[in-house]
Amino acid sequence: SPSLNYQDRLARATIPVVQDLLRIMVTKETNLSVAADVKTKQALLDLADQVGPYICLLKTHIDILVDFDNDLVEQLSRLAAKHNFLIFEDRKFADIGNTVKMQYGAGIYRIADWSHFTNCHVVPGEGIIQGLQEVGQPLGRGLLLLAEMSTVGSLANTPTYTAQNVEMALRHTDFVAGFIASRRLTDDHDFIYMTPGVGLDVTGDGLGQQYRTPEQIITRNRSDIIIVGRGIYGPGKDVVAEAQRYRKAGWEAYLAR
Ligand code: UP6
């Protein structure tokens, strides 16, 4: 099986934004992505500035913000440059190709303008990838397919559904950077794997979320990036201390495989 070393994969990667991501991971020695699920512009900027030194990727849900504006995007992009991280708008597109093209490129958020990565469900079939690709590839963006979900009873985690994700990705390796999944799914192409539902202290949130450890996800399951939200900024947490802790746990789990 191929080397899973990030440096080797940087040399092999063909999508420029994937090269950028791997270069950041190697340079900063981090495979941590923070899921920045906060409700105000200032809270998002403060969080990004605090965790910035420890992450390779900031994952956003931009439609959670009550006070989104274009200045937010400018300031967030400035923080990404300051701390050397990329941005992943976790939009989870799920409509027909023609509709997602507009949702991705237009509207209030203009996601394609500022987000290096976004993701989609392949429920509608391959047209959703084609639609997003028409908008995103000319801008140098990358797409992740939700081949699995972290939640109890997820309908995406059936073997056929997950396998169809891999087949579709293999037909679009110029735009599909990888997957949201709990584990590496194929060695036929070197995709990037990102895994949410990661936590060191609790096993769930009472709403279906399930948490596994960086050791399980990175060392044993051979995923590449841990995505951590409330484990870092939940009630009573010291954000910087937790970001440092998860960065260390993620990197040690990587070195151990
Ligand atoms: N997310 C999951 N599971 C998935 C896909 N996405 O939790 O299968 C996203 C959520 C949230 C983050 O939308 O932004 O990852 C997890 O946050 P948490 O660490 O606070 O649970």
Ligand species? 6-AZA uridine 5'-monophosphate
Which runs of at least 5 residues are low in confidence (pLDDT < 50)? none
Total DSSP E strands: 8
Largest sheet: 8 strands, parallel, barrel
Radius of gyration based on Cα positions: 17 Å
Active site: 90, 92, 95
Catalytic activity: orotidine 5'-phosphate + H(+) = UMP + CO2
Pathway: Pyrimidine metabolism; UMP biosynthesis via de novo pathway; UMP from orotate: step 2/2
Domain Orotidine 5'-phosphate decarboxylase: 31-245
What does this structure look like?
The protein is an alpha/beta fold. The protein has 11 helices and 8 strands. It has helices at 6-12, 16-28, 41-51, 70-83, 97-105, 111-114, 127-136, 159-170, 214-220, 230-233, 239-255; strands at 32-36, 57-60, 86-93, 117-120, 142-146, 176-180, 192-195, 225-228. Strands 1-2-3-4-5-6-7-8 form an 8-stranded parallel beta barrel, surrounded by 8 helices. Helix 4 (70-83) links the parallel strand 2 and strand 3. Helix 1 (6-12) packs antiparallel against helix 2, helix 3 packs parallel to helix 4 and helix 9 (214-220) packs parallel to helix 11 (239-255). The model has no long low-confidence stretch (mean pLDDT 98). 6-AZA uridine 5'-monophosphate is lined by residues 35, 37, 61, 90, 149-151, 180, 196-197, 209, 227-231.
